[in-house]
Amino acid sequence: MTVLILGSGLDPFCALLEEECARRCIPSVFLNEAELVGRLRVSWAPGDLAFPATLGTGPAALRLAEVSGVFFRFAGALTFPAGFTVRDQQYITSELVALFCALVQELPCPVVNRPRHELWFKGWIPESELASSSAPGTFQFRKAIVTSDPDTATTFFREHGGMVFLPLSAPIPYPIRTQRDLHRLHRLMRTIPVRLVEAVEGEELDCYVVGPRTFVASQSGGDPPSVPDAIRGECVRLAAHLGLVFAQLRLLRGRGGEVFALGMELYPTFPAQDIALASELVGALTDELQRDTR
Amino acid sequence: MIIVSGVVADEVVELLCARLLRLGYDFVLLDQLRFPAKIPVTWWMEGDRPSGSLRIGTERVDLDRITGVYVRYSDYRGRDVLRRFRQREREIIKAEATLALGEMFDLMPCVVVNRIGACASNESKPYQSRWCARYFRVPRSRITTEPDEVLAFYEACGRRVVYKSMSGTRSIVRRLKPQAFRRLRFLRNCPVLFQEYVPGSDVRVHVVGEEVFAARVRSEATDYRYAPRSGASLVIEACSIPEDVAERCRRLTSDLGLAMSGIDLRETPEGAYYCFEVNPSPGFSYYERATGQPISEALANLLHAAPPQLALSEARRSRSMIARPSPSSGTGSA
């Protein structure tokens, strides 16, 4: 039985998982998305479990019937040899995304994470959506608005004595502290609506979820912070609710100890500042990939 | 109040607006070409739903008053405004603008035709085919990079095979013919979806809430959408389908989290129904014009006064997360 790793060669999770499989003597095959174009060999009959489907990039393709677990981190970042037009590249990327999302969906083994169409175009669940789904009494949520109206942005800025601009497509915070920042934001708002969030002081935390287990780390490093069991449990519930085995909740512990949910990463980021945590996560992921689903 | 979000040059949007006017239903057109520069929007979360407003012309539209949203995710947005930006910047701007509306619509408790997440199943035919197979036959398929595999499948299907894209990228469905065999070597660059050719007549079914409209398509073209281009005949006429087939169409639409769909079926001479695809943003005006079926009227009625249970069910199935557990129930489910 073989673990299939489908992702990028630049993703440390993929590399470490491959190492961990080797350490546990679990056969694994790593399909690096940067090496697929021109090398991918696939033969698959959707819906026909009796068909001897194969997948691989070398002469010896992997039989899908032998796959016992899939670590799915495919992001569609393909590398193309010279000669492919932009249109060709876009088409081939769409086709391979369509292929892999369907193929791993059909495999009866553990898939971390199994693609779900409602989430395909999301890398991130924003706090607005978490706010509509969280159990009462668990998370706090920052005041936030989405607006294209400069006057509303100015009012929000004054009410909160500063704020954070959080793009809708990528959760990279841009603090808005000064009038100059505000003027630049107004210029941006001629083209796009913006999400503005009150600035809350506190310690930023990551709560990684791997199946039923949670791993909490402070973004500033140091000892693992303590987080109430109710919060950890809610993180597990939210991930499970989305059908995710592997997720990362971005949290913020305020000065009064209250815990804010800032959002959920659907493709958890590698904790480069904490190698011990990374090892624990990879160990837990490998456990999940070996889970017997029969 | 109804929101129609799209561009007026889209004849589906034009037809729906005309129908809403004729029926006297309150609606606003959120012209995506004018968004966001000329259509200010502000929204925030109030409990588990968005609150706020849009301003369209002189009219302020409060989100609390919205009974239904119809949205076409078009690529026309900000055509003129974006000209001065680089390609990468344009992509970011489009993503931000799409999400500003998509996220708001996703969170609204009214009926939304259709929520952006629910539409995504159409981006992978083999993925969506798993849903179709719950209720209908689906054609035997091969996805492969191997020319020998294609030839074996071709023979196994009695030399009657079509090929098409796997993704939502529009492609013309074509019969595989021996003249194309020499191009099979290009499969190494990109696998292709091959399917057995299913004889019979195409039936396009539009599901609008609980209403079902079926139209039979008579054409000798392999892909009737392109029949005029190939000089093939094309006749589309309203038809009836068995109630159990209609019910399967309703359930398939609901399972995918859609409030409206355009389902491509083929009825074989033996009376079996195959399902090829479920379109989450069907160009229903084409079929309404050909058949006279009141599809736009059904859609207008749905947006004006969707049964509460239908709106709730569509929202639950299509949104990634909507269930908030009650204090007593422990965990919720969608």
Q: Label the overall shape of chain A.
A: globular
Strand content of chain B: 25-35%
User: Please, how many helices of chain A?
Assistant: 7
Total count of strands of chain A: 16
Instruction: Give, in order, the helices and strands of chain B.
Output: EHEEEEEHEHHEHEEEEEHEHEEHHH
Mean pLDDT metric of chain A: 92
The strand line-up of the biggest sheet of chain A is 8-16-15-13-14
Structural class based on helices, strands and sheet pairing of chain B = alpha+beta
Task: Report the biggest beta sheet of chain A as strand number plus sense, adding barrel if it closes.
Answer: 5 strands, antiparallel
Radius of gyration of chain B: 22 Å
* Helix proportion range of chain A: 25-40%
Question: What is the strand content of chain A?
Answer: 25-35%
Greatest interface and its participating residue counts:
A-B, 65 and 73 residues
Number of strands of chain B: 16
Straight-line distance between termini of chain A:
14 Å
Keywords:
heterodimer; A: 294 residues; alpha+beta; five-stranded antiparallel β-sheet; 7 helices; B: 334 residues; four-stranded parallel β-sheet; 10 helices; 16 strands; globular; disordered C terminus
Describe this structure in words.
The complex is a heterodimer of chains A (294) and B (334). With 294 residues, chain A is α+β, with helices and mostly antiparallel strands. Chain A has helices at residues 12-23, 86-106, 127-131, 150-160, 179-188, 229-241, 275-289; strands spanning 2-7, 28-32, 41-44, 54-56, 62-63, 67-72, 111-112, 124-126, 144-147, 163-165, 174-176, 194-198, 202-210, 213-218, 246-254, 259-265. In chain B, the strands form four sheets. Chain B has a five-stranded antiparallel sheet with strand order 14-13-12-15-16, with helices on both faces. In chain B, helix 2 links the parallel strand 6 (68-71) and strand 7 (111-113). The longest helix of chain B has 21 residues, at 87-107. Chain B is globular. Classes of the chains: A alpha+beta (294), B alpha+beta (334). At the A-B interface, strand 3, helix 2, helix 3, strand 9 and helix 6 of A face strand 3, strand 4, helix 2, helix 3 and helix 4 of B. Strand 9 (144-147) of chain A pairs antiparallel with strand 3 (41-46) of chain B, so a sheet runs across the interface.
